[in-house]
Amino acid sequence: MITNDGVVEVNNETMPADLILIKTEIGAVDSAVVAAGAVGNVTAKLRLMTTDLDKVALEIGALADAAVAAGATGSVTAKLRLMTTDLDKVATQIGAIADAAIVAGATGSVSAKLRLMTTDLDKVATEIGAITDAAIVAGATGSVAAKLRLMTTDLDTVNTNIGTIKDDTILIKTNLGATDDASVPSGNVGTISGKLRRVSADLSGVVDGIGSVGTGAAIAGGTGSVNAKLRLMTTDLDKVATQIGATADAVVAAGAVGSVSGKLRRLTTDTDTINTNVGTIKDDTALIKADVDAINSKLGTARETTASTNLNAVVAAGAGADIPMIAFTDITFQIIATNITDGGVMAIEGTLDGTNYAVIDTTAVSANGSTIYSTLGEPYLAVRANLTAHTDGTYTVLYMRK
User: Fold this and answer.
1) What integer pLDDT is reported at residue 165 of this predicted model?
2) What are the angstrom distances between the C-alpha of 320 and each of 25, 330, 368?
3) Which parts of 185-230 are beta strand (E)?
4) What pTM value is reported for the model?
């Protein structure tokens, strides 16, 4: 009997109408097995799934199944035993954690080579940063730790925005659907019950896709069951192991044929050679300076016979291009001003580092005409004219060096 408040009375006990619906969808323990994709309660579908699991268990095999040869037929367990045997060989290649670090280009286990590589990890640690690095703002540069702190802050915001789960309960119930919901096509919208019906139908196809343990190896890129493709993979793994080679493989010459191990030994040897050839920059800087001094000594008597333009009819404040002075000690500027009413200020600037300029002298231009300015016997890396203030007028600056 259903009361006015939606409660059902069963055997003198009352329970919510939703529980009666859930009990019906679950079904009885002796519910008959349904066919794949057919309508039925949860118990009937679970019985179908356990039947399919028996088939899968047969494919998996027993713990005592003997290891198969590479590419041979056998249960999944037998193939896994083959893989564990191959893993022992790989473990030999990897070596022990106590293997001493090798020098670049020497033979040794992967563990020994990794110990050599850990030296370079200090640079990575710098990139990661410290756990106390302050969180950065979004899009800014910073260590990984700083970026992770920003991410955890953002995650707190996300958690705050998740809200409560109460309203989701109603949505879940709607999504579960009823036991007789129609099977939904792949990719379509539907209830979980409808999708389960689709899954149970697809499981039959999966069992066919796995194939039997006696299936022959597939060809590369060809169709075939999972078992057939696994047999192909174990065959290919043998080929890969041959390509990798052994830890003691000799160093190969540049461009020569050889195993990966032999080529890695070649790479580590070449890295040492590069480090030796890099040398230090300090000695090279001294050598370059000496060469520059020699050039300055030889070119110190050079003299230009034609004027060049540094500013050409400019009508706004701004600097001219760098004028190299490495081979000169004297320079003369001619400032030509036209259309002057109030004028402007022209500065002659010099630099010793090629980046930071300082004022050598300034000239206030208040009338049309030409002004000559010279700097003699003063070494600069470069000089330039700079119209630092402009009220009106047109300015051209010529120069000659000696």
Assistant:
1) 25
2) 87, 18, 20
3) none
4) 0.30
CB within 8 Å of 14: residues ≥ 6 apart: 3, 7, 8
**Residues 135, 155: Cα–Cα separation, whole Å:** 13
User: How does pLDDT run across 213-262, given as a tens digit for each residue?
Assistant: 787 888 889 888 888 887 888 888 889 889 999 999 999 899 999 999 99
Per residue in 279-305, pLDDT (tens digit) is 765 677 577 666 656 555 555 556 899
Q: What is the DSSP string of 293-349?
A: HHHHHHHTT----S-EEEEEEE-S-EE---EE-TT-S-EEEEEEEES-SS-EEEEEE
Q: How much is the pLDDT for 158? A: 67
Q: Yes or no: say if 112 and 95 are a contact pair by the CB < 8 Å rule.
A: yes
| Residues 381, 373 contacting (CB under 8 angstroms) | no
Alpha-carbon distance of 174 to 165, in angstroms, equals 15
Tell me what the mean pLDDT of segment 135-160 comes to. Answer: 90
Type of residue at 343: G
Measured distance CA(114)–CA(103) in Å, rounded = 11
Asked if 30 contacts 19 with a C-beta cutoff of 8 angstroms, the reply is no
Domain boundaries, the chain: 7-60, 76-215, 294-401
- Number of other residues whose CB lies within 10 A of the CB of residue 17: 12
CA-to-CA dists, residue 277 to 6, 209, 272, 281, 284, angstroms: 88, 58, 9, 11, 12
What band does 155 get if pLDDT is binned at 50, 70 and 90? Answer: confident
- Pairwise CA distance, residues 289 & 381, whole Å: 13
Contact 225, 211 (CB under 8 A): yes
**In the block, which residue shows the tokens 């090629």?**
354
Higher pLDDT, 14 or 216: 216
Please say if the pLDDT value at position 344 is more than 60: yes
**From the candidate CATH numbers 2.40.10.270, 2.60.120.200, 1.10.3720.10, 2.60.120.10, the one assigned to the domain spanning 294-401:** 2.60.120.200
- Give, in degrees to the nearest 5, the angle at Cα 130 between 126 and 132: 155
